[in-house]
Design goal:
- Belongs to the LysR transcriptional regulatory family.
- With about 290 residues, the protein is of the alpha/beta class.
- The chain has helices at about 5-15, 20-25, 30-45, 60-80, 100-105, 105-120, 135, 170-175, 185-190, 200-210, 225-230, 245-250, 275-285, and strands spanning about 50, 55, 95-100, 120-125, 145, 155-170, 190-195, 215-220, 235-240, 255, 260-270.
- Strands 3, 4, 5, 6, 9, 10 and 11 form a 7-stranded mixed β-sheet that branches. The protein has a two-stranded antiparallel ribbon with strand order 1-2. Strands 7-8 form a two-stranded parallel sheet.
- α1 (about 5-15) packs across α2, α2 packs across α3 and α6 (about 105-120) runs antiparallel to α13 (about 275-285).
- The longest helix is centred in the first third of the chain and has 23 residues, at about 60-80.
- It starts with a helix and ends in a 5-residue tail after the last helix.
């Protein structure tokens, strides 16, 4: 039989990013949290944490965290079905991983009504769409939005459609760097904007144009800041069409190569035994249409 106080300590260390923060969240001493982790490791016969900064779960730890996520959701269903004394009437909180561009465009409209109806709170962890599934594998989240279709063990995936990305720049930037057209020589000099080390959209766009060389680029890990830098003429970049409709209509941004775009498929991943709340969120997202 698993001791859920020990599992709670493991979840807190991973979710809070360290033993000290976990101790504060649980109302325990740091030593007590450490002892619970050691006892858990003794009982399962394997390490559950890599003592890194921040601590990361081992393969055994990930399996236990996946279990904790699902138990939390199922316990909420049980509390609704079976009257019981509760020390708190706090609203449920779901940890969800999603890419920054979804957060900046369609996500809020898709989930707002459900959050209001279910008194649901969200804790959103932002990851690039190509790597967000690692949060599910680590047992850190109840669901995630990412570009990978294949779900992890114990989970399902649902297609959300695809996000259309356009390569854009300001008119001044176009005149300064691409007056002679989008040539290989111009692309070697004109700086791009890249979200982060995992962002391959600009590379994918250029490869589709037959350009596979290195190119200068700024790094900007913010969807809103990304568009701001492009609008200010600091570089060109791939931006969701949903995000820049008004800028394109007003002529503040221009496409580098009209008709050349990158389609990024998105999938919603969720635990198979995640309870009614996660099921309701899944049904809500199934009605989302990306274009």
């Amino acid at each position: 039989m698993l001791d859920y106080k020990l599992l709670q300590a493991l979840a807190a260390v991973v979710e809070e990013g360290g033993f000290e923060r976990a101790a504060r969240a649980l109302g325990l001493s740091q030593s007590a949290v450490s002892q619970r982790i050691k006892l858990l490791e003794s009982r399962v016969g394997a390490p559950v944490l890599l003592r890194a900064v921040p601590p990361a779960p081992t393969e055994t730890g990930r399996k236990l965290l996946n279990h904790v996520q699902q138990v939390r959701l199922l316990e909420r269903d049980l509390q609704r079905d079976v009257p019981m004394d509760s020390e708190t009437d706090a609203a449920p909180r779901l940890r969800i991983a999603l890419n920054a561009d979804s957060l900046a465009t369609w996500w809020a409209d898709a989930v707002a009504d459900l959050c209001e109806a279910q008194n649901l709170l969200l804790e959103l962890l932002v990851d690039d769409q190509d790597v967000g599934l690692r949060r599910m594998r680590a047992g850190e989240v109840a669901g995630c939005v990412c570009a990978t279709e294949q779900p992890v063990a114990g989970a399902r995936s649902l297609s959300l459609g695809s996000m259309r990305y356009l390569a854009v720049a300001s008119p001044a930037f176009m005149a300064r760097h691409f007056a002679e057209g989008i040539t290989p020589a111009a692309l070697r000099r004109a700086p791009a904007i890249v979200f982060g080390p995992d962002d391959q959209l600009q590379h994918r766009f250029l490869a589709g144009c037959g350009f596979t060389e290195r190119f200068p680029h700024h790094l900007c890990p913010s969807s809103e800041g990304f568009v701001r830098l492009i609008d200010s003429g600091l570089g060109w970049g791939l931006v969701p069409a949903l995000q820049i409709r008004s800028e394109l209509a007003a002529g503040r941004l221009q496409e580098l190569l009209p008709g050349n775009q990158v389609e990024v498929p998105l999938y919603w991943h969720y635990w198979r035994n995640g309870g009614r709340l996660l099921e309701a969120l899944t049904h809500q997202l199934a009605r989302t249409v990306l274009h």
